[in-house]
């Protein structure tokens, strides 16, 4: 799962026994060498889909980590791109990365549940961050995204089709979530990371409640499942309220 440059077992244990913020501060120097980083294939497919509907003026990478998603937004935004994360360690790594030519990039340390911006963005994207939010926090998160988008702005994020119950992947994710729940029941501070907490139906309903019109775009690069449904979709939520 990890490259030779990735974290060792002891380092991962230190991360998971910390808070989410402190854990990612510790993991930041080696984060890009872990499977937790969104794969380049997903980033490239997202950029390709957005290029078909852009360009946009200003973009925000929500929970940007080391900034891989910022590189996607830099391909489709003309004026500026901002990366926001609450881990100082992740932002430090992001600032040091060599980036391709593009619009100016700003880095802001902030909590996604309390964003320090007005409605100044045309595009907000997020990659692989929703497992760090409990179901009760999702309405606040979506309301915050809505508040920083201009009318007609879009909130986008890729989602992978859930594994079928009974499959090996389903069992692994279920087991991981169970271990995390036990860990958080007996250890403080909590480390919120649940792979199955962000359910598709709930997500779509909460986006509608927050004032978004939701479309699902198939990312055809990843093919289809046996039932002909896409393996990976891009959720495109447009702010409809003025």
Low-confidence stretches: none
Strand sequence of the main sheet, in spatial order?
3-2-1-4-5-7-6
CA-based shape: globular
What structural category do the secondary elements indicate? alpha/beta
Number of helices: 8
Helix-strand string: HHHEHEHEEHEHHEE
As an assembly, this protein is: single chain
Rg on CA atoms, Å: 18 Å
Keywords: Methyltransferase, Transferase
Domain Methyltransferase: 60-153
GO molecular function, one term: methyltransferase activity
InterPro entries: Methyltransf_25, SAM-dependent_MTases_sf
Short structural description:
The protein has 242 residues and is α/β, with parallel strands linked by helices. It is built from eight helices and seven strands, in the order αααβαβαββαβααββ.
SSE map:
Blueprint: H1 9-16, H2 20-27, H3 40-51, E1 56-62, H4 68-76, E2 77-85, H5 88-96, E3 105-109, E4 121-126, H6 138-148, E5 149-160, H7 168-186, H8 200-210, E6 212-218, E7 232-239
Parallel strand pairs: 1-2, 1-4, 2-3, 4-5
Antiparallel strand pairs: 5-7, 6-7
Helix pairs in contact: 1-2, 3-4, 6-8
Structure description:
The protein has eight helices and seven strands, in the order H-H-H-E-H-E-H-E-E-H-E-H-H-E-E. It is globular, with a radius of gyration of 18 Å. By secondary structure, it is of the alpha/beta class. It is 36% helix and 22% strand. A seven-stranded mixed β-sheet has the order 3-2-1-4-5-7-6, sandwiched between helices. InterPro entries: Methyltransf_25 (IPR041698), SAM-dependent_MTases_sf (IPR029063). GO terms for molecular function: methyltransferase activity. This is Class I SAM-dependent methyltransferase. Residues 60-153 form the Methyltransferase domain.
